[in-house]
Design brief:
Shape: globular
Strand content: 5-15%
Order of helices and strands: EHEHEHEHEHEEEHEHHHHH
Distance between the termini: 34 Å
Length: 284
């Protein structure tokens, strides 16, 4: 299994990430097709040259010709699609995804999947505060991380194939984690941060805040413009790891509050020095 110009790639779910995959792979010379619920999405992608062909319905020919299928669907919809349409897949086809949670998805998909196709899960840690193929842009991958989450069912060749996809798309770093390690990590670096941004925006109803705030507030709440349908599903599917991280954050925040209430300047400065030291790891 290797990436070459003969690969035909099908994107199932042509939104921001699916569209960005399509743009990158099309530019690199791959034949890229897509399935999406809305005909307007397919029409736009064809008009802009993002894909070579597409359909708003499950097209047997497009599915059956694909060497690679990238699923950019909500987790529940992803399972339903595989359950209903896997019979259309080409023998030997490679499947991957962009789903933001893994433990509750990967094992179920692999359990139900035909033995002559392989699903190797991945998570492109990239995004924007806007949605839809109209906002897709392959440049979002350049400084982002790509995580491959194999299980015991995956072959070493598939893991390398998926890592190669991340490099091909231009991701800054490609890593490998188990589905469980991924979900614990993502609950902290992504889901908790979205919870904090949402809480910041919902704890005050002052409609004039935009007139007074500086860059710090804007930076902290950038991700508060949130797709409620997708993120609520992701939170609930990763409930236990996220609750653990929320409890850790609440304890740390409570400790910081205690230092302030006690007028403990040195304690506050100690927290700030530790924060500065750890944040420096992101600037290397």
């Amino acid at each position: 299994m290797e990436w070459n110009g003969k690969n035909k790639v099908l994107i199932v779910g042509l939104g921001l990430i699916g569209g960005s995959y399509a743009r990158a792979l099309k530019r690199l010379g791959y034949t890229v097709t897509a399935l999406s619920r809305r005909q307007e999405t397919i029409d736009y992608a064809l008009r802009e040259g993002i894909i070579d062909a597409g359909s708003a319905a499950v097209d047997e020919k497009l599915v059956g010709e694909a060497d690679t299928v990238v699923f950019a669907l909500y987790p529940g919809v992803f399972k339903d699609w595989v359950r209903a349409h896997q019979s259309l897949l080409k023998p030997g086809a490679m499947l991957t995804d962009v789903t933001g949670v893994k433990s509750c998805i990967v094992y179920d998909i692999q359990e139900m999947l035909r033995p002559d196709v392989e699903f190797i899960a991945a998570h492109p840690m990239a995004g924007r505060e806007v949605y839809g193929v109209e906002n897709s842009d392959e440049r979002i991958f350049r400084e982002a991380n790509f995580i491959v989450t194999p299980t015991a069912r995956n072959t070493p060749e598939a893991v390398e194939w998926c890592k190669s996809l991340g490099r091909l798309l231009g991701f800054r770093k490609v890593s490998v984690l188990s589905p469980e390690e991924h979900d614990e990590m993502i609950s902290f670096v992504s889901q908790l941060t979205h919870c904090i941004a949402v809480a910041l925006m919902t704890c005050s109803d002052n409609r004039h805040l935009a007139d007074y705030t500086g860059d710090s507030f804007r930076d902290l709440t950038r991700i508060a413009r949130i797709n409620d349908a997708m993120w609520s599903e992701l939170f609930l599917l990763n409930r236990e790891p996220l609750l653990r991280q929320m409890d850790l954050f609440l304890r740390e925040f409570s400790e910081l509050r205690g230092l302030l209430a006690a007028e403990d300047a040195e304690g506050l400065r100690g927290k700030m020095r530790l924060s500065t030291e750890r944040r420096a790891n992101f600037d290397k």
